[in-house]
Design a protein that fits this description.
Blueprint lengths: L2 H10 L8 E8 L15 E2 L8 E9 L4 E4 L1 E10 L24 E4 L21 H4 E10 L7 E10 L5 E3 L5 E9 L13 E10 L4 E6 L10 E3 L6 H13 L3
Amino acid sequence: MSLRVILLLALAIPIAPHLALGQIDVTWNNCTRAASGEPAPSFNQDFQCKSSATYRLYGSFQVPVELPTFHVMDVRLELATIRLGTAQPLSPFWHFEAGGCNASGLQLRVQRDMAGDGNVCTLFESPWGNPKKELEFALITAYGPDYQRPGRGVLLMSIGRVRGQPYPLQANTHYFAFYLEWTTANASRCEGCEDQLLIVSSANLFSRDEFLMSLTGPTLKAEKFYAKINDPDFPDPLIARTWGQIKSQYR
């Protein structure tokens, strides 16, 4: 299955109500469960915009049934500014697309033991094994700033195991999926680093030949359906209403 076909499937397949759904979480600093000695996960991360810093957003997931032929995971992250009643475009700092002001500000990683000092997500299994030997691709496939409405960005990623080497996902097991490295190195020339954003995740799982399952969060370990940037105290009910307004404009 080509990357083009995988990407088109990820965008085209609706979540069918009669299908079993898995869950996907995004949290800062660690996966949703931290072992002793690991940094605690957080739903918010404040960016230090006056200096160059790197922050890591971790994706993890679980499925309710066994999936013995799993090969490919397509991830969709939706970013939205937390500004009710406004239609302001994303600031230059949140333009990660090719040619965007901050095109180098976001990197996808899938090797768990390379994150920080490697002491993260140790309670989670990795379906990628040794990425140098078992992965065929792991890449950001697209980023759309102000997609369908001002102030909303859509990030698409695809991670796939080598053909002929499926990974049997087990039911109700916690899996590490990826982490994203966000840097503020370009904040001085790309304004808007201080903006407040929501991040909501979803994903589709595939074998090499067919769609297997959609993932939509959160798991019981996460409790929230989002991660945040630059706003630890924004009220949850208002966030839900903000995201509901965003969804209503494109569904």
